[in-house]
Write a structure and sequence with these properties.
6-stranded antiparallel β-sheet, 9 strands, 3-stranded antiparallel β-sheet, 156 residues, globular, 21% helix, alpha+beta
């Protein structure tokens, strides 16, 4: 590897890391926990998805098939995120919604895998929820494709 490639690769890595920081309110999130606290309250998959921005396997979440009226909440802090009225069957294998509740989520650019996607996080604790795509139904045209392990469901 020559020096130019080495320096270019290093600079690109630093830039990518700087551009993929978590959304965070000034002064931090309303709900914060030490890493040990997150690990104690979450199983390995939940921790990987919610704290390390991983993804669960498609068609593994029981919430994908949830059809009752109610609200989907953040598993990390119990913030209400999505009403059941905005959930729909996207065929992707993950719970999908066309609109969150007001002031529930924040987004950031996800530049992993050599593309730019919109990542969605809980605005109160920063937990990773999934991604937003522009192939959803009207009226928003958005598909909030979420990891079921990041959510809980509260029936109406």
């Amino acid at each position: 590897m020559n020096r130019r490639i080495f320096l270019g690769t290093g600079a690109a890595s630093v830039l990518a890391a700087a551009l993929t920081t978590r959304p965070q309110a000034a002064g931090g999130f309303e709900v914060t926990r030490a890493e040990q606290e997150w690990r104690a309250m979450l199983n390995d998959l939940e921790y990987k998805v919610m704290r390390k921005e991983g993804t669960e396997r498609a068609f593994t979440s029981p919430l994908n098939d949830e059809k009752r009226d109610g609200t989907f909440l953040c598993k990390g802090c119990d913030l209400p995120l999505y009403p059941s009225e905005t959930k729909y069957e996207s065929g992707t294998g993950w719970p999908s919604f066309w609109k969150p509740l007001d002031n529930a989520v924040e987004t950031k650019a996800d530049r992993k895998f050599f593309m730019v996607r919109t990542e969605v996080h809980c605005r109160r604790c920063g937990s990773h929820l999934g991604h937003i795509f522009d192939d959803g139904p009207e009226p928003t045209g958005e598909r909030h494709c979420l990891n079921g392990v990041s959510l809980t469901f509260k029936p109406a």
